[in-house]
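Checklist before submission:
- one chain only
- standard amino acids only
- sequence pasted in full

Submission:
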Amino acid sequence: MTRHELSEKHFNSIMELKGADELKATVKRLHIFLENKETHLLNDITLPNHLWVIKRGGGVSTLVKSFTEYLYAARAIDFCGTVKSFEFKLDYIAPDAFFSELTRLDNTISGLAGHHRQYKGVVCVNIDEWLEHTSEVHFSNFLDYIASNNDRLLVIFYTHNESKNIIDAAETALSSHLRVEMLSLRFPDATELIDFVEAKHIKSRGFSFTEDARTLLYESIVELAAGKHFKGFKSVEQLANDILYSVLSSDLGENKKITANMIIGYGKDSIYVKRAKAQIGIRKVIGFAERSV
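Returned file contents:
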């Protein structure tokens, strides 16, 4: 596969993602930009950094990986190191304390350079703890560090906070040091989540949902999503796992159709959904409970 074919492949993969409409629009513009840049030999024009506003469970890691693979295949930025991208949670440090986070980030970047002289690639930084402290000196020093290394790093800042005033203040702080493009990434709706579950976990195993089963699951996912502990793709993947466990524990025979009657225990008024909505600080791993760290 040629580099151009690989670029088209990753471009199409992003277009097939559930939700993330603004990322798709950005990648479409970027696709055109890169073609024009190559045609007109304008190699000194660089890409902006990003600020992503995304709900918890919205698939940050998946989106970053897909976006990075496209950037790599399209030669949009330079890559050098043991990984193409990595995620970093920027912990809050009070103004009167030593800003150890800057050292930690620098050490992480240096370590990922491997045998190369320096790391080049994508850094995805969670700034949730700093959203109400963007005017403090440590945050300003952090942004100065990013700006001084922006010739080799493309940074995706992201937050789960959706308050307009807070996001506006964060965007202003970032823009005072860096070129930043802000994306509000829409969370997939219930229909898209069902399509995701069916494609990845059901059809890939030779099963399918009947229409009444899809209706039941639609209502269940809407109910789950209304809970404050809903974790998006992780929650629906666990739901798919539990449904398959239940189906395969019954007298199935050669039947590959999953009907509403077969999964009635996962309806919107079921104990399963009520428990999932109330669940706090625990994730299930194939029937076992595991404390989250």
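Reviewer check: The mean pLDDT is 90.
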